[in-house]
Amino acid sequence: MRFSGLDGELALSPLRPDDAEAHFAGEDPELIRWLNGGPGTLAGTREYFRHCQEEWASGGSLRAFGIRVNGVLAGTVDLRFSGEHLAPGEANVAYGLYPVWRGRGFATRAVLLAVRYAAGEGARRAVIMVEPENANSSAVARRAGFELSGQVTEDGEVFDRYFLDLR
């Protein structure tokens, strides 16, 4: 399964366990802070990517994609079709790029591909939760057409909640 951008340069495909080493090598303090919640290990990354593959195979609520630029893993974008602060029909979008790929519009393009997939799976609204201090992630949400709808608190942390109507 592969979802490509109009120019063929950017594609999304399900994360695989053999992507773990490239992902782990691409992590930097920014990804660790905003996306992972703390430093991981290569073994933990492999286990998580196996879990992602199982979610795809079982039709679970997680769809984890590798963002690939000309075939090279450049980051990840995840869709969750259920969870805290999600109403029925909403899909949460989380994304991150490795440092060398930032600043070129790839995150915005990957988010747009991911929400197109989510709409095809029946989602009526996409949601992005961003810590208010994460200006880069907020900018991606706005460039992708998401609108700020307020804030939510989860585990004592405040998040700006952006949404995009997919209907």
UniProtKB/TrEMBL annotation:
InterPro entries: Acyl_CoA_acyltransferase, GNAT_dom, Ribosomal_N-acetyltransferase. The lineage of its organism: Bacteria, Bacillati, Actinomycetota, Actinomycetes, Pseudonocardiales. Its EC number is 2.3.-.-. Keywords: Acyltransferase, Transferase. This is GNAT family N-acetyltransferase. Pfam families: Acetyltransf_3 (PF13302). It comes from the Bacteria. The keyword Acyltransferase applies. The keyword Acyltransferase applies. One of its GO terms (molecular function) is acyltransferase activity. Transmembrane segments: none annotated. It comes from Amycolatopsis albidoflavus. Residues 10-165 form the N-acetyltransferase domain.
